[in-house]
């Protein structure tokens, strides 16, 4: 197909604008990484402009990740909460989305409304806090796994995907005598990998990146997720030694420590999402909420 | 809500009846037989229903503390009713009025940038014909969505810092005076809007990208045959094709107007910019959790929730008036 002159100008402008936009979005991350691996001598000599450092050092990382440090312990908490949380969330979401994808289910519309209502009106921060407190969940290891385990929005993404699977597939399987449970496990779930991977990633990011639920419900540093520790590392211009257990050592300069901590905390999600990206375009269809 | 009630009872009844004997099943009417046929599906509904009951519907009962002088030690039964006292106190509080106003303003600004930018981005990405280049751009613009606001806030603070920040270096090159932008009320809302768009626009575009991918290619081919230019194809084929998606997202966003970005603000604001940057959520957190004035904070929660619900219902109604098939419920 030949492009007219106007069209090729349009295409070129489009390429340039998008490339610039992408650089603006990505460069800050590049800068964080370079600051975290540049020795302080070079960082101060170049007055902070270290987009392309000439020397490297991992002293900030070895300092932060020393065994027994708070960030090390908190990392374990975050991994535990994320793994348990994503499994629970996928269980809750897949089961209900599968049931509601059956259009002949009596009472379906009303049940969908029960879930949609939770997206439109929430009790709010304080009433939820009181509820968690009355349930005796405050400051427990379970609270950060339980409170984020279901999102009606993700359920609707999953339901839309199930609805897009041809009904004839299920019908022929049930004519062959397969039980509803077997149909779900052996036919629907393998076909639904794009949606399960996408929604699983959405939940994973929520669990990994949560700091606010932890601020609300957890007051014990031993139960704190790594985001909360990072928050206090960033907030403090001088690092409290007890936070990092640095007995007997002068802590290295703050900026480098902060950036290294950011990299340590952000890296796992940044590695995982490109691996799952190929599922997004198929898995993220937002069908109609009303079904 | 009214419509939700019959659904609940239907679900509950089947939950109970599934245990009954074969004989009852044979006697039961056609409706019951229809329900029985789907018994396994009802069982699959139970875990998630239980979760929303505990974590979404139980807190609705906790809303009552907004009308009490709630005391943690005495609990619901021991605390006294206070009527609308806390609501009056809120509207007399300068802090609350600021937070309320800021919430609306910041949401409105974010609505303009954060709602339109992803649509434009999706349309622009769709015009990229080089596959590997498109994929690379997509991966890159999604990136900030996968870090927390603790991380992104830390990065922004570094970039804007007066000593080390790159932004200040650039201002210096152009002859400006470097300043700590994050503590200046004049810039704070702009920083919120710009950084929000930078972090979220890539990911927000994905829903439109998926919608565009689902459009019928034959319509495009027909448009090409009819001599439509690329731009005309975008305006007359792509945009109408994703209109329903745009409307759904718009309605959902309107429902979030009262949430102006808690995670972002709490990681970027400081007492110097409270007057322009404090939003309802950060206000509720400080009053309720830090100062432990639970009833006053819960009253602010109620105001936030009721207005949010009213807005989303109104947006849905307007969408339906324009196009009866649109709207999310």
UniProtKB/TrEMBL annotation, chain A:
Belongs to the binding-protein-dependent transport system permease family. The keyword Transmembrane helix applies. It is found in: Cell membrane. The lineage of its organism: Bacteria, Bacillati, Bacillota, Bacilli, Bacillales. The chain crosses the membrane at residues 12-33, 82-101, 110-130, 142-162, 183-208, 255-276. Residues 75-276 form the ABC transmembrane type-1 domain. Its main location: membrane. This is Carbohydrate ABC transporter permease. It is a multi-pass membrane protein. PANTHER family: ABC TRANSPORTER PERMEASE PROTEIN MG189-RELATED-RELATED, POLYGALACTURONAN_RHAMNOGALACTURONAN TRANSPORT SYSTEM PERMEASE PROTEIN YTCP. Keywords: Cell membrane, Membrane, Transmembrane, Transmembrane helix, Transport.
């Amino acid at each position: 197909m030949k492009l007219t002159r106007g069209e090729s100008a349009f295409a070129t402008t489009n390429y340039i604008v998008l490339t610039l936009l992408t650089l603006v979005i990505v460069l800050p991350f590049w800068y964080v990484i370079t600051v975290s691996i540049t020795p302080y001598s070079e960082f101060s000599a170049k007055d902070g402009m270290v987009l392309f450092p000439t020397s490297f050092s991992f002293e900030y990382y070895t300092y932060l990740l020393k065994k027994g440090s708070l960030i090390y312990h908190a990392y374990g908490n975050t991994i535990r909460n994320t793994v348990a949380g994503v499994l629970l969330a996928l269980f809750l979401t897949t089961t209900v989305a599968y049931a509601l994808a059956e259009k002949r289910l009596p009472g379906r519309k009303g049940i969908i409304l029960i879930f949609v209502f939770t997206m439109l009106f929430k009790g709010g921060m304080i009433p939820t806090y009181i509820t968690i407190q009355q349930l005796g969940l405050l400051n427990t290891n379970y609270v950060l796994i339980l409170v984020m385990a279901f999102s009606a929005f993700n359920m609707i993404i999953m339901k839309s995907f199930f609805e897009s699977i041809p009904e004839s597939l299920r019908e022929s399987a049930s004519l062959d005598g397969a039980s509803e449970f077997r149909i779900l496990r052996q036919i629907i779930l393998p076909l639904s990998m794009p949606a399960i991977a996408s929604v699983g990633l959405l939940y994973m990011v929520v669990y990994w990146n949560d700091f606010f639920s932890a601020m609300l419900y957890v007051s014990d540093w031993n139960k704190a997720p790594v985001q909360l520790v990072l928050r206090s590392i960033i907030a403090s211009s001088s690092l409290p030694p007890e936070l990092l257990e640095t007995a007997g050592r002068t802590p290295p300069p703050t900026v480098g420590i902060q950036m290294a901590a950011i990299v340590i905390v952000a890296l796992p999600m940044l590695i995982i999402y490109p691996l799952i990206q190929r599922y997004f375009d198929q898995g993220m269809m937002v069908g109609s909420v009303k079904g | 809500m009214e419509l939700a009630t019959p659904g609940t009872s239907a679900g509950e009844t089947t939950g109970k009846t599934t245990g009954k004997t074969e004989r009852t099943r044979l006697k039961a009417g056609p409706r019951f037989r229809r329900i029985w046929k789907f018994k396994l599906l009802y069982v699959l509904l139970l875990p998630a229903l239980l979760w929303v009951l505990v974590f979404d519907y139980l807190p609705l009962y906790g809303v009552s503390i907004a009308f009490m002088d709630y005391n943690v030690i005495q609990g619901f039964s021991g605390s006294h009713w206070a009527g609308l006292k806390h609501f009056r106190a809120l509207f007399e509080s300068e802090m609350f009025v600021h937070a309320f106003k800021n919430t609306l303003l910041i949401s409105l600004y974010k609505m303009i940038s954060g709602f339109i930018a992803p649509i434009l981005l999706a349309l622009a990405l769709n015009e990229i014909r080089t596959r590997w280049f498109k994929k690379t751009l997509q991966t890159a613009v999604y990136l900030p969505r996968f870090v927390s606001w603790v991380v992104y806030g830390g990065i922004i603070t570094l970039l804007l810092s007066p000593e080390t920040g790159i932004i200040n270096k650039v201002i210096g090159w152009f002859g400006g005076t470097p300043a700590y932008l994050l503590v200046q009320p004049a810039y704070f809302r702009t920083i919120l809007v710009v950084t929000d768009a930078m972090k979220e626009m890539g990911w927000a575009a994905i829903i439109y990208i998926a919608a565009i991918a689902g459009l019928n290619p034959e319509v495009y081919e027909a448009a090409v045959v009819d001599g439509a230019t690329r731009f005309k194809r975008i305006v007359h084929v792509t945009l109408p094709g994703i209109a329903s998606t745009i409307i759904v997202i718009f309605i959902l966003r309107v429902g979030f107007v009262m949430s102006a970005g808690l995670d972002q603000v709490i990681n970027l604001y400081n007492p110097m910019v409270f007057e322009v940057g404090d939003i309802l959520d950060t206000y509720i957190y400080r009053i309720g959790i830090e100062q432990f004035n639970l009833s006053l904070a819960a009253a602010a929660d109620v105001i936030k929730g009721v207005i949010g619900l009213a807005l989303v219902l109104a947006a849905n109604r307007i969408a339906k008036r324009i196009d009866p098939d649109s709207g999310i419920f």
